């Protein structure tokens, strides 16, 4: 029987074209992986920006609802003075508030709010509708409950839409400056205006402890936070996606005028605290701060939209 003895096998060698193809594959693989991750990151950033735009949209509608509800409260105060015009204006304004609550529910049906509503406390109109029905049966005192639920909605909308977690410091600071402060200032000024009208109607009105605390917050923490963070937003703005002329111009001018109106209201509140209120002046100045708070927050949301849109455009370039 013949025994065949084989020598060692020669290593398999690739042809030159195959070696070049393998080298190209090894070279391209990291680039492909990097491109995939960059695309995923881009989509993630764009989705965050779009959720923030849904947030500003919801806050803008909540602000409209709050502003009209405050006007309704003022009309009740004027009606108690025997103002027949105010009495006639109440029913159509009630219908307008109901319309805006419906609009607000539409805004809060955006996927960013409905997807996480059960797990993260995202906003809904259920409690507002319940408070509104309580007002209809117990007007005007029930409006306090409606206003309370609307105030809670601002922070929930900001948190759920990630406005408070904006990756750019300018828009983040603008959100931190305005959303936690201006809605509460609106509600406080509206309450003072209502009470001043009640006093002019002959009711005995006193500066309660809660109103005194709110007055102190208006003069100190809220105003200081609004001013400090707004300045930080304006200073940081050129460092990100280009300077916003309207932020450093129109918004800054409105902020300065708002500060002046707050100081005038503070002076009238101090007169009330000292037992020498001038009710018509107090009502007028509270109305100016109430309107100014709504206008400034509305302007801030417009600025937020511009800053976020500029960020989206920078992603797409």
Low-pLDDT sequence parts: none
Residue share in β-strands: under 5%
- CA-CA gap between termini: 78 Å
The averaged pLDDT comes out at 83
Largest sheet: none
Number of DSSP strand runs: 0
Instruction: State the order of secondary-structure elements, H for helix, E for strand.
Output: HHHHHHHHHHHH
Helix content: over 70%
Domain count: 1
Derived structural class: mainly alpha
Secondary structure tally, helices: 12
- Our Rg estimate from Cα atoms comes to 29 Å
How would you describe the shape?
elongated
Please characterize this protein's 3D structure.
It is a single chain. This protein has one domain (36-316). Helix 1 (16-79) runs antiparallel to helix 2 and helix 1 packs antiparallel against helix 12 (279-316). It has 12 helices and no strands. It is mostly helical. The relative contact order is 0.11. The protein is 79% helix and 0% strand. The mean pLDDT is 83.
